[in-house]
Write a structure and sequence with these properties.
Blueprint lengths: L1 H16 L17 H9 L11 H10 L4 H10 L8 H9 L12 H4 L9 H12 L3 H13 L2 H17 L4 H17 L3 H20 L1 H11 L5
Length: 228
């Protein structure tokens, strides 16, 4: 909410300075593939940009060099305790395609956009649907069981997973191997729809930084004026 107020303040200041004949400026109406905005992200010049302002995130932006909103979504989901361990694998996957590894070739479609790394809870659910033939509800139950790490429930789910995978034509060993790969990701995987919404807000603050830096910083000062 703080950031939405910040965006509104910035738009108000920008519209104060526009010529009468110019249309009212709204950042929501701007392109989501603006090259100047992504240049700014690639340089890590993301001071006061929602979710991307910490020094650690600025360093990762310089390493990844994001050029599309999907990459911002992935970084948003990865830059948290747990998934952070997989950021180097994600970076290698982007710049060295030969390092990308899929737990099974049939999962390439699901994991291609994140270079073989299971970043999102939705991916964990899709993998269990593809490998074990789970329903969407069953896949969500599995994700929850993995997230809670209750051994008893997990072992029961593992049996169901292996049983389903056998019916799909996978070997018991391969099914167990994929299940073990999924566990850490399910434990702290981020919800993609949540990361996407965050990244749209991040992109919009990034757009303002790239195109209206004075107005954006002035709006920040207005927004934070009561904070010492």
């Amino acid at each position: 909410l703080n950031t939405l107020s910040l965006i509104r303040y910035a738009e108000e200041i920008i519209n104060l300075h526009k010529k009468p004949e110019d249309p009212v400026f709204s950042v929501a109406e701007q392109s989501e593939s603006d090259s100047e905005t992504f240049d700014m992200f690639c340089k890590g010049d993301s001071v006061a940009v929602f979710q991307f302002e910490s020094p650690g995130m600025q360093k990762i932006l310089r390493q990844v060099g994001p050029r599309c909103i999907e990459e911002l979504v992935a970084l948003n989901a990865l830059y948290r305790p747990g998934p952070m361990d997989y950021i180097p694998q994600y970076i290698d996957g982007k710049w060295k395609p030969e390092t990308v590894h899929y737990p099974d070739p049939c999962l390439e479609d699901l994991l291609k956009e994140t270079y073989g790394v299971m970043v999102y809870q939705e991916q964990v659910m899709q993998v269990s649907q593809k490998i074990a033939g789970f329903s969407l509800g069953g896949a969500d139950m599995l994700r929850r069981a993995m997230g809670k790490k209750k051994l008893e429930v997990l072992m029961q789910k593992k049996e169901e997973f292996v049983e389903g995978a056998l019916k799909q034509g996978f070997t018991k060993e391969h099914a167990e191997e994929i299940f073990e790969i999924m566990i850490p990701f399910a434990g702290y995987g981020f919800n993609k729809s949540h990361a996407a919404a965050y990244s749209v807000v991040a992109y919009r603050t990034g757009y303002l930084t790239a195109h209206f830096p004075a107005e954006f910083i002035a709006a920040n000062l207005t927004n934070e004026i009561s904070s010492t």
